[in-house]
Amino acid sequence: MAERPTVGVVHTAARYPREAPFHPHLQYPEYPFGANTVGTEPNAAYDGVRRLFLTLGLDAARAGTAGWNPLGTLVQPGMTVVIKPNFVLSRHKKGGDLWSIITHPSVLRAVADYVWIALHGRGRIVIADAPQYDCDFSELRREGGLDTLIAFFASQPGPAFEVRDLRRYWSRRRHQPSMLEELPGDPEGTVRVNLGGESCLANRPSGDLYGASYLRGEVRAHHTGARQEYDLSGTMLRADAVISVPKLKVHKKVGVTLNAKGLVGVCTNKNLLVHYTLKPPSAGGDQYPDGHFTPMEERLVRLERWMYDHLLAPEIAPLEWLHRAAYWLHGHTLKPLGIGIPAEKRKLDAGNWHGNDSAWRMTADLMQVFHFADRDGRLRDTRQRRTFSIIDGVVGGEGEGPLTPDRRESGVLIGGDNLLATDLVATRLMGFDPWQIRTYAHLLTADRDLGVRDPAHIDVRSDTPAYVACLSDRTQPYLNFAPHPGWVGAIEVARQEAA
Questions:
Q1: How far is CA 393 from the centre of its chain?
Q2: Do the beta carbons of residue 413 and residue 10 sit within 8 Å?
Q3: Does residue 101 contact residue 247 with C-beta atoms inside 8 Å?
């Protein structure tokens, strides 16, 4: 890989093919399967991935020939290659476009084909992720045509192919003990990594941290002083190469969801991921801005937290039913009288705003762990795994991301062999200032070098000339994504005035 990070950006039609397993619509010279597996509908995602590799100059000497192998320097025969999508949910909870939330499988199919070429018949391809607890993985497989994709690769002689759900449990409705269903989890187990004093959370008070669920005692126990622990997927840490394929979308807690924030999907216990700190900044937290709630609303927020801690955290069925009854009574008695919290104000609760000083630290920690922890979870001085990234921006997500965004027909694919460099370019193309995203501001100067110190040294290549200067131009909005409501006015670049 080149010392100077190179990031490619290609324009695509803003639509995905509908027919799984998402065959290309042309029989390209290097295409590893027969003419009978060429599709009839346009496949902009496949064509875009291919053009992205060409734009990056991968295996340029053989481009356009049957021997072209763009991932050949990353992947060698016999390797296990993990393709990590963003599979956070299986449906859009406000009835919007699912593909504004998660990676489209047509992009994964194109990536898998080029990994298949590089493996030369020997090795394994694993699509793996740990979605949110309420993602119905069977629904996701059905909606995304993943079962058809699995069947296609199983019918071809060559490397093994599988799709893995890395979670230990899931729930269709709520994160409550009576509703949780156990899952097999990662077949290669969990690896615990302790960042210790190197964690961005090491010097933060641990008493009021909140993780992924109401079990606050668990997240506090693993993030205190020199104990800063994360549970990572064995599948991810033991892979020979990992290709990250996140979605181009905004995020309510850290600004954007790209490679860095997408690494929550390599964690098998999401409750060890610090999401925010209780209370407003004036009281030492970052749960919501100072003055955001009225005194009555603040009392309601504190009451809700008390109920979580005392009725749900003990994981005792009668207390759980008491919690449900209390919410039912509030919804049918007090709420109709106006005693509640307006939905618009709720959008900035739970650390969903630019003043969140906790989640960026967790995200930065994950970037360090993912790159520098070896297969047994020990931190090393050099990067431990081969990585590549392709950000799925054929359709993106703006507004109330990452879980209920609006569809944004952005029509781009962004890729490179450095995850941080790719994120910086993607953030800038979304119309945001990457220097205002605290995760990236920290990683550019972190003790452990992720291969980017000065964004000006990133070589941006694109079939859209205006994108080439995106990191030096601090005014153009480019794709002009709408940020999450809690980030409005905090990360957008200045708009150019008409002459």
A1: 13
A2: yes
A3: yes
Q: C-alpha 203: how far from its chain's center?
A: 26
What does the pLDDT look like over 209-244, one tens digit per residue?
Answer: 999 999 999 999 999 988 999 999 999 999 999 999
Block residue for tokens 């080439």: 468
Q: Rounded CA gap, 295 and 27, in Å?
A: 65
Q: Do 81 and 114 form a contact (C-beta atoms < 8 A)? A: no
Please name the amino acid found at residue 75: V
Cis, bond preceding 402 (omega within 30 deg of 0): yes
- Please give the span between the terminal C-alpha atoms of the chain, in angstroms, as a whole number: 42
SS (H, E, C) 396-445: EEECCCCCCCEEECCCEEEEECCHHHHHHHHHHHCCECHHHCHHHHHHCC
Report the DSSP beta bridge partners of residue 414.
9, 391
- Candidates 358, 343, 243; CA nearest to 297 is 343
DSSP string, 239-271: -SEEEEE-EEEEETTTEEESHHHHGGGGBS-GG
- Strand 412-416, strand 386-398: pairing: antiparallel
Note whether 483 and 492 are within 8 A (CB). Answer: yes
Query: Predicted confidence band at 329 (pLDDT cuts at 50, 70, 90)?
Result: confident
Domain boundaries, given as residue ranges, for the chain: 6-275+358-487, 295-340
Look at residues 101, 24, 356 and name the one whose alpha carbon lies nearest to residue 204.
Answer: 356
Q: Cα dist. 148→19, 106, 124, 365 in Å?
A: 9, 12, 18, 36
| Backbone CA torsion sign across 13, 460, 465, 72 | negative
Each residue of 12-54: pLDDT tens digit? 999 999 999 999 999 999 999 999 999 999 999 999 999 999 9
The per-residue b/e assignment along 46-80, b for 16 or more CB within 10 angstroms, e otherwise, is bbbbbbbbbbbebbeeebeeeebbbbbebbbeebb
Distance CA 79, CA 73 (A): 12
Q: Is the peptide bond before 21 cis (omega within 30 degrees of 0)?
A: yes
Q: What is the pTM of this model?
A: 0.96
CA distance 299 to 182: 35
Cβ–Cβ under 8 Å, residues 349 and 279: no
* Tokens linked to 356: 């969140």
219 three-state secondary structure? helix
Nearest to 352 by CA among 286, 399, 295: 286
